[in-house]
Amino acid sequence: LYEQVDGTVPSIDSAEFHPLDEALDQVELKVAVRTLEGACAQLCTTLAPPGHTAINLVQVYDYSCVRLAVRENITNILMDYPKGLHVNELAKKIKVEPKKLSRIMRLLATRGCYSEVAKDVYANTRLSLVLHSENPVRHMVNLHTESASKGGALIYENLKEPRTAYSYHPDHCPVMVANNKEGITGAFFDWMRQRDSTRESYHRSMQGLSIIMGSSAVLTQFPFNNYSTVVDVGGGIGAFSLPLAKVHKHVKITVHDLPEALTQARSVWARDCPEAIQEHRVEFSELDFFAQMPVAGQDIYYLRNIIHDWPDEESLLILRNVRKAMGPHSRVLIHDYVVRQVNREQAALEASKFGATMAPEPMLPNFGVGNIRMYQQDVTMFIMHNAKERTLPEFLELSDAAGLKLEKIWDLSEACVLEYTAA
Ligand SMILES: C[S@@+](CC[C@H](N)C(=O)[O-])C[C@H]1O[C@@H](n2cnc3c(N)ncnc32)[C@H](O)[C@@H]1O
Prior knowledge:
By secondary structure, this protein is an alpha/beta fold. It has 20 helices and twelve strands. The longest helix is centred in the first third of the chain and has 21 residues, at 27-47.
């Protein structure tokens, strides 16, 4: 696939992106990589002594090392030194002790994030480039290193403390319990909305998540040509709808979100897609999706990474409000992970029910680590919102209760798009 695009295959120390890294539709690549990642990890777990693998699961500091790199803009600094910068010089620039820094850079370079081009001299790689301040993925990295990590450390306590153990209230998620200790209360979105820099980075991180998940594939896989109006419910700054406006110029778009998100959205669109504003192809319209219904009678109501942010009760409120807005021709698209069971019999059932692809034996049927982001993100949703990624039966329970009928599942190899009509 790499060779087909431009005749080259990236190496571990490639210092620039490959054209395929920025492709809108990565479904074919993701299908191949899912098997590659799953098979490599399973082979290692099978053949390495279990103690060795167990310690690899927990002795993980990559996280904190990447945090340093991001906070100190190491990738940006190294952009000026394509042949590399000595760690002593780098240490001076970011004001840290050089011998400690060299150990952190060595660990990161062992992962392929930065390359040691000569002894203690480091340069950027294709992997470290995503940590650049202008790269949206960096904002998702930031969300994890600065917020999710606090909650991740408290999973055990959250499951055992009487106040939180059986609660699905968004205020009781591990991140907010950690924040409570600093006097911050409410749910993650309440907290995030009130802090300008956190909110701006959060909304940019959604553009990052779209890149990570290859979500823009929906623009080529789903037949938008057949539809003329699209409502991006909880659309943020337009991680989905801005590329939609560029690719499908005939579509009229409504972006619904909270006022603070829309303020940021307007300036992002004015910079990155002014033609859509000038041609009146996009409207920004305030909406609290628990209290109000979206603009009525549109062709498509698109909810990406929305339902996964909320426990069942809140998700049902959102979907019922969307249902109220639908006309007879309207469709709802829920774009989220559809979580797979690990058990082979269950996986076979899923395969027969919704055409989910099973990995070939002896691989785990769900592709194991090849799909790890789905399972990690499920735990992230618990940590940050007391919410979850859902299995197909869980989606069906919700959508049945909201009066929606599942028509089709578009499998984009990482997440899926569930297409509904009014029941
Ligand atoms: C995980 S982001 C997804 C953004 C966008 N759909 C995407 O895929 O990039 C969740 C979005 O829900 C919005 N949101 C949260 N609470 C909301 C509410 N009560 N009403 C409307 N939007 C809300 C947030 O502002 C945020 O933009």
